[in-house]
């Protein structure tokens, strides 16, 4: 079934349900395969890399973080702040708090990169989401934090997902910022246009 004409709220609902049905063994196998593939991409050679921490049933990024840290990369994680509706960048490792709905992130007030430092310190980003399409568009949880962040900080960004999260087309809007590609457990898709 094509998901090309599905609205964002409906696609979000479907993807959450599909992710919840993935068996633990399949999750682990897929995360290991996707980790190897992401680490083989040129973006993994950046000196500083922004890495999302998994939320809910998203693919686990713990192995990517561990391997990048062992390779000497400077790592960063984000904090979504509802007060200013922006993503803030924090050096990893750092203290984390778990929000009421399960998202883990640095606490407000923790040391963070100034906006002017981001371009000099962060050369690539591993971005999670609920769905991606071959054009690089991403369906997140609906708050727009990553689109606003990437519009201000055009960092080479690769999605990281289970293969089932790669759909034919996501309805995009003018404010949506596409990823440079998507890495899954089965394939790497670099952004196409059109």
Explain what you see.
By secondary structure, the protein is α/β, with parallel strands linked by helices. It has a single domain (8-190), classed as Rossmann fold. The protein contains five helices and eleven strands; from the N terminus they run H-H-E-H-E-E-E-E-H-E-E-E-H-E-E-E. It has helices at residues 8-20, 24-39, 62-70, 115-121, 145-152, and strands at residues 48-51, 74-81, 86-92, 97-98, 104-105, 124-127, 131-132, 138-139, 157-160, 181-183, 188-190. A seven-stranded mixed beta sheet has the order 3-2-1-6-9-10-11, with helices on both faces. A hairpin with a 5-residue loop joins strand 4 and strand 5. Helix 2 (24-39) runs parallel beside helix 3. The mean pLDDT is 93.
């Amino acid at each position: 079934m094509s998901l090309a004409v599905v609205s964002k709220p409906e696609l979000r609902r479907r993807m959450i349900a599909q992710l919840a049905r993935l068996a633990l063994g399949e999750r682990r196998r897929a995360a290991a395969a996707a980790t190897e593939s992401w680490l083989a991409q040129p973006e993994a050679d950046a000196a500083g890399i922004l890495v999302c921490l998994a939320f809910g049933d998203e693919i686990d990024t713990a192995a990517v973080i561990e391997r990048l840290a062992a390779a000497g990369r400077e790592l960063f994680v984000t904090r979504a702040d509802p007060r200013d509706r922006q993503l803030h960048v924090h050096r990893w490792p750092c203290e984390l708090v778990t929000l009421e709905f399960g998202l883990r992130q640095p606490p407000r007030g923790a040391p963070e990169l100034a906006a002017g430092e981001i371009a000099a310190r962060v050369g690539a980003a591993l971005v999670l989401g609920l769905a991606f399409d071959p054009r690089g568009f991403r369906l997140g949880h609906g708050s727009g934090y990553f689109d606003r962040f990437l519009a201000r900080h055009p960092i080479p960004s690769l999605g990281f997902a289970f293969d089932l999260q790669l759909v034919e087309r996501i309805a995009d809007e003018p404010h949506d910022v596409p990823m440079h590609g998507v890495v899954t457990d089965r394939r790497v898709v670099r952004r196409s246009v059109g």
